[in-house]
Structure formats: structure tokens, C-alpha cells
Amino acid sequence: MAESMEVDEDGPIRHLLTIESIKIMGESVGISNLNEDAANWLSEDLEYRLKEIVQNSNKFMCHSKRSQLTCSDIDNSLKTKNIEPLYGFDSSDYVPFRHTSGGGKELYYTAEKEIDLLNLLNSPLPRVPCDVTLKAHWLSVDGVQPAVPENPPLCTIEAQYEEASAMSIPNMKKNEPVAHLKDLKFSKKEHSKDVVVSSEWSKLKPLQAHSLSLEQQLYYKEITEACIGLSSEQKSQEALGSLSTDPGLYQLLPQFTSFINEGIKVNLTKRKLNSLKQLLKMVSALLENSTLSMEKYLHELVPSVLTCLVNKQLCSRPEAEDHWSLRDLAAKILSRMCKKYNNSVNSLQTRLTRMLAQALRNNTQGLAVHYGAIMGLVELGPEVVSSLVIPRLKVEGELIRAAQTNTGNVIEQVAGSRLQNMIQRQCSPILLTSRPATDNLQDFQANYGLLGQVLFNQVKTLRQNRVGLQSLSSSSGVALKSPRPPALNISSPLVTVKVTGTGNVKMNSPSPISTSISSPIAAALRLVSQSAQSTGGSIMGSSSTPVTSVPTISATILSAMMSNPNAQAMLSALASKAQSPSIPKVESTISPPKTPTTTST
């Protein structure tokens, strides 16, 4: 009756149960003249049901750690299908099948022995199995556990502690008191099966939950609500200032860390860009606090900040919203973490560099991910850029060209433009110092591909500005700072000089005194400002970070330049090189010192 499923070349599919078998089964339940199509459909369905039951039975066998299928496995499989199991077919032994063939068919059957019904009827009946019953007992009476068989045996806490200590410490007897543990020492070399212990056993201090006071809870609530934008902008700035200066935040640091971590996860899912910026500002404020140590919480903060840096989509409209500033802020925060907490134990900078380089090498991600990876590597230092970013410029140029030619994807076009501008701005000063002055456009294009043209023009502009400033400095005897100068600490008040596009010069000074700046000097200052803006640094001043918008000039140096003939000659030479033919005279307020200095450095 049972046949293997096979396909004849000239006939239909042959199933395990033939159509004749289905018709015989139908006649046994009173259904005669069964249609052949219906019998074929029933044969397919019955074959599927049987295979499903056998497969589920095999699962019960595997979970029972057995290699032999039993009748109980079949019953359990039927129960999972809400089918009443078959009663009377129970055998714990293996039931062998016998094989017979005839008429071109094969049949497997079980050998059945004959049973004498008279002996079966005269045999005594088996005992009726007991029903499932419930019995109640007392767990405790007035806080004392009664000694009944249903309850676990009585054991004191001291005995349990001794047993646990004996199991965790090698070579300790089970009934040895805890008081002798302080005198227990272990040799440096134990048996190979024992644990090697080189120090005395000491008790572990139990963990305790530190509860916050009512004032701390109120402070935490106010700070978090203000930082995530539920309050006004002024209150948000005050909250960030409090986080960066308050010396008593060490107890609230775990709560703030968890809040930032969970907040970044939630807002990344909801694509809330402003909330992500506020959370990163909280991280930056906590890093600025000199009384806090964030080293114990880097495992929570670094993944969150790194996600904001290299995540593919941070907002709902990447082509319109400014998520680039969020990536820049995340890169600066990671750089600050590396400078403050990197050591040989955690290897924070090495691990971050490896992850950013891996994100940069993944060409399947969007250009926004490459922007974040390159920005993070730029913040880690020029050595990282020279070894990881510069060799990738040719590939990045190809990706940018592919994105700009794809007119159907506006997001990638905007990302490609942003990435190209950032590479031109950040990599040009490094190429200025690493490439020889004899390089031409063909060399740049051969090394950097499509980005060679813009990088060559930018490096050429930087070289011309540097050569012009050095020649003027040597001719006038006044030393000018090179691009990206080190910090210069001058205690005198600062004068901010801003040159507008129309040639006007604006100056701000703490104490007002009328001073006139002639048009040639204004033109010279305009040229100096253009040079400072192109190099991304400050010509003279006391700023710890490079200024990209306006140069900062010490009032002492500026006053000395006003009274020094050599300095005036230098400014006149600069004025002759200015592009604007006529620049009006501008009034400024400058506070010169009582004793002007005649030389400047």
C-alpha cells in the first residue's frame, strides 16, 4: 500500500497512498463510488498530514535525546495538532518491520502474534491509575517554616554561605568554618584540574543601590527637560553651562549617561535631529567639566556618539536638513574623548580609528557615512589623515562623480557636494606640507583622480599666499605667522578685525579711543584677512583654536604697527597687492597701551 513518491515520464505523480487505497478507506466508512479526482486530492492531503506528524514526532525524539522513535512521540505530535492520540498502541521496545513483496509491490508490516481471547478475558484487570490531585500545606506559620516533607529542608544562611564558599574556593573542606578563610593561602602552582590562585581570598563587597536625594532628583529632571528642548533656548544654555561647571555631579553621572544613551537610541529611530544635537551637547558639556571623569562610562557613550557620526540617515529629510553639523560635533566629541582618556589599556584611539577606517572602506554605504568617517579621522590628527584618508581620495572621487551624475538621487548629490568641499578644506593643508612644490596638475590627477583638480588649485593658492607673506616678512623685518600657528598667549586686550566683502574694516575693542585707519592699511588688512580665511588660521592673536571667519590681532601689536615705520611700509606693500582699487577710510575704536611697543613678534 505504501509506495515511494516518484514521477513517471508518461504518467502523473505517484504518492505514498494510491487512489485504490483511498477508495478502499472510503468504502470502509460507507462512501462508495468515490470520484477519482477527489481520491487523488485526498491522497495528497493525507500524505502531507502524515509527513507533518512524523516530522513533529522526530522533533520530540530529538529533544528527548533519543535516537529511536516511540509511540509516545507520535501521541505528542497528535496532541500539538489538537488531535486525540491513539490509545492501545503503546510499546517501549523497538518494533521491527518485516518486508514482503509480490506483484511488483513492496510492503512493510509488523509481525503480530495470535492472542487467546479466553485467556485474556480470564486474566485479572490492571489497577486503575490514580487521578491527579492537589494537596495544600503550610509554607510558613508566623514566619517559621514547618518541618513537613513537602517543604525544603531547614538550612541556615551561614551554612548556605559556607557551602557556596567551599564550592568556589579550591582545596577547601565542606565543613570548614568561614572564620578560617582569612588564613587560607594557595600555592602558585596547583593541580592542573584546580584553579591557580596567587593571592589571599578576600570577601567581595556587596552591591548597594545608591538612592538620590529629592534635590538631586529635581535637578536631574530640570536639566534633562531643559537640554532636550522642552524649555526655552536660554534655559537650555543655562543647563548646559551647569553641566560643564558644576562640581557635584558625580552621583548623577550614571543617570545622565543612561539618559543620553537611551535618548540617542530613541531619537535615531524617530529621526529627530534637534534632539540628537541637544544630547550630543550634553556629552560635550560633561566632557568639559574638569571635576568629572567619564572613563567608566565610555562603553556607553562612545557607541552612541559614533552612531551619530557614521549613521546612514539621521533625519527624515537628509537633502534639506543640516545633519552635517551633528556629524561635525560628534567627530569633535570623539576626538576630545581620545585626547582625554586614551591610554594603553583601553586603546580608545586605535579602536576608533579601526572602526572609522572600516566604515570608510565600505563603498556600499552612502556618501554621508563617508563624510562622517573622514571627519572623524580628520579630528584624530594629521597623521591619521595622511595614512588613511589621502590614499582613499581617488576612490572617493569616483564615488562623488557617480553620485553627482545620478540625477534621480538628490540625497547622494548633496552628500557628494558636501564631501568634496570637506575634503578640499581639510586635506589641502596636509598636502601643502607633504607634497613637493614641483608637483603639477597631472601629478595630482594621477594620485587623487577626479579630486586632483580642486586639490591642486587649493594647494596652489595656499602656497602663493605663504610665499607672499614670507617675502613681505623678510623685506620688512616683521615675522608673520605661518598657516595654522600655535597658540600665542598675549595678556593685552584683543581687537577683532573683520573685513567685509565691500572693503569695509570693522574693529571692536574693550575700551574705546578714537583711532583712524587709512585706506591702504584697510586694504592690507583685507589681504591679510583673505589669507587667513584661505588657510583656516589666524595671523596674529591669542586664540587656542584656529579662527576661520575673522582674524584676531593683539591691540599691542596693532598699535605698534601704527607707530612703526617698517610696519607701515609693510602694510603699504600689502595695500598695493590688494585687489580692490579704492577702499574707504574706516573709523575704529582701539585701546592702545600706555607704553607702545615698537617691535612685534
Walk me through this protein's architecture.
This protein has 601 residues and is mostly helical. Among the domains are: 6-97, Orthogonal Bundle (Histone, subunit A); 215-421, TAF6, C-terminal HEAT repeat domain (Serine Threonine Protein Phosphatase 5, Tetratricopeptide repeat); 483-589, no CATH class. Helices cover 50% and strands 6% of the residues. The chain is built from 21 helices and 9 strands. The chain has helices at 19-28, 36-63, 71-80, 117-122, 157-168, 214-227, 233-245, 253-270, 273-288, 298-310, 324-341, 348-361, 367-379, 382-389, 393-405, 410-434, 441-448, 452-476, 519-535, 555-563, 565-577; strands at 6-7, 13-14, 97-102, 105-110, 494-499, 505-508, 514-517, 552-554, 586-589. It has a 3-stranded antiparallel β-sheet with strand order 6-5-8. A hairpin with a 5-residue loop joins strand 5 (494-499) and strand 6 (505-508). Helix 9 packs parallel to helix 11 and helix 11 (324-341) runs parallel beside helix 13 (367-379). It is elongated, with a radius of gyration of 42 Å. The model is unreliable at 1-8, 172-202, 480-520, 532-557 and 577-601 (pLDDT under 50).
Key terms:
mainly alpha, three-stranded antiparallel β-sheet, Histone, subunit A, disordered C terminus, single chain, Serine Threonine Protein Phosphatase 5, Tetratricopeptide repeat, 601 residues, two-stranded antiparallel ribbon, 21 helices, disordered N terminus
